[in-house]
């Protein structure tokens, strides 16, 4: 499931539902939304109808009042209440920053300023979220791009709900998927010019990682911050949020379905891979990077091999590639194997065991061609992934110390192999 909900004018509208908590539950879908400015909505448009269909009863606008006045606020409607709570007291001109400015430390410092200055507004925002939770009604909160101020409030709420820190970092970084659209939106409002700061609209995981480190060093924990800086009962607030915004994990899922990808699926494959890359980076796995593989890559793999998609009901939930040779990792070989690449699932929402079922489907396809082996490789520095493949019956047969795939410097991979057909 793509966490972003598609709108024509909104770039970064997301459901916070589906994230798992440390106590084995998950955030209820359709209850908490984070987004870029709802001032872009127009009554009577398809976007407006789509927004109203979500049943949102409370909107929190985290922007400065002058932003809401100059760029528009969400149109009024009897179905919801609107609250303008400007949590940022020291505005900064992000687009005017020099290209060499590192966004990580710079933005982490700005976020700490917000935590220090915006206590009254953050307190009220959390109280509104708790009230909405108790009334079992959906709520949306936003700033301009749905990245900085929105990301901070999302981090506080997710932490109070018991969502692990790597997932909070990942949630922040998902704005990376909307970065091109956010940049185009900025350019359209500035006569086609580009911001001088090349990182505009970007949300690298390092920003939230640095902020959370500084935040916890200063305040101890989110609960301590809520108690000491906001003057709220953190235990009571967390209990309310967890009681109304969490649910047990599903015990049943629609059956997985598989189909071969077509060129029209290339955009979805790029987005799925970028999502998986952000999941990895948030957990300190330096393997995939967003935007490394474009649509041309996937179309080429369809021409030279096969690409398959997995769906759970109507939702894309995974994909993989099969190559019929792989000289970069394995050197010249006879046509005796299929090489499995980019086995990827949607984080948090794919059913348990999806990866293993996809692996079995890939092996079945290789077997159907009469090739006796399935082969794959994984980053040598990723023992967790190696163990996963070994548990699926793959054996380590070697190391390639200098694999080159055209996207960067050579890197070391572990080579794994599984025999699918008995020896002749």
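^ structure tokens above, recovered residues below v
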């Amino acid at each position: 499931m793509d966490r972003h909900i598609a709108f024509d004018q909104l770039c970064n509208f997301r459901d916070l539902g589906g994230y798992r908590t440390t106590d084995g539950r998950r955030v209820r879908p359709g209850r908490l939304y984070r987004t870029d400015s709802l001032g872009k909505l127009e009554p009577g448009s398809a976007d407006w109808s789509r927004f109203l269909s979500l049943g949102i009863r409370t909107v929190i606008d985290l922007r400065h009042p002058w932003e809401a006045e100059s760029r528009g606020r969400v149109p009024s409607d009897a179905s919801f209440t609107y609250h303008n709570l400007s949590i940022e007291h020291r505005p900064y001109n992000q687009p005017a920053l020099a290209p060499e400015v590192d966004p990580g430390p710079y933005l982490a410092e700005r976020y700490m300023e917000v935590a220090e200055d915006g206590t009254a507004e953050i307190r009220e925002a959390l109280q509104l979220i708790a009230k909405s939770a108790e009334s079992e009604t959906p709520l949306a909160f936003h700033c301009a791009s749905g990245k900085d101020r929105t990301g901070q409030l999302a981090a506080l709420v997710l932490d109070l709900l018991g969502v692990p820190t790597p997932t909070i970092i990942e949630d922040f970084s998902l704005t990376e998927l909307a970065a091109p659209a956010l940049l185009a939106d900025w350019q359209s409002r500035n006569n086609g010019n580009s911001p001088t700061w090349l990182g505009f609209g970007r949300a690298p995981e390092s920003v939230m990682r640095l902020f959370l480190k500084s935040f916890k060093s200063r305040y101890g924990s989110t609960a301590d911050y809520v108690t000491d800086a906001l003057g709220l009962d953190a235990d009571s607030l967390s209990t309310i949020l967890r009681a109304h915004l969490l649910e047990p994990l599903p015990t049943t899922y629609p059956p997985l379905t598989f189909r071969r990808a077509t060129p029209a699926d290339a955009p979805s494959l790029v987005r799925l891979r970028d999502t998986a890359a952000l999941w990895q980076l948030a957990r300190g796995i330096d393997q995939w990077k967003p935007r490394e593989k474009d649509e041309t890559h996937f179309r080429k793999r369809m021409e030279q091999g096969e690409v398959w998609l997995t769906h759970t009901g109507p939702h894309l939930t995974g994909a993989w590639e099969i190559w019929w040779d792989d000289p970069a990792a394995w050197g010249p070989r006879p046509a005796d194997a299929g090489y499995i690449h980019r086995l990827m699932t949607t984080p948090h929402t794919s059913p348990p065991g999806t990866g293993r079922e996809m692996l079995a489907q890939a092996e079945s396809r290789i077997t159907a061609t009469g090739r006796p082996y399935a082969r794959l490789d994984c980053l040598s520095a990723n023992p967790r992934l190696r163990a996963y493949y070994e548990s699926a019956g793959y054996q380590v047969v070697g190391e390639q110390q200098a694999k080159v795939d055209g996207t960067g410097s050579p890197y070391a991979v572990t080579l794994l192999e599984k025999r699918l057909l008995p020896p002749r």
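The longest helix spans residues 266-282.
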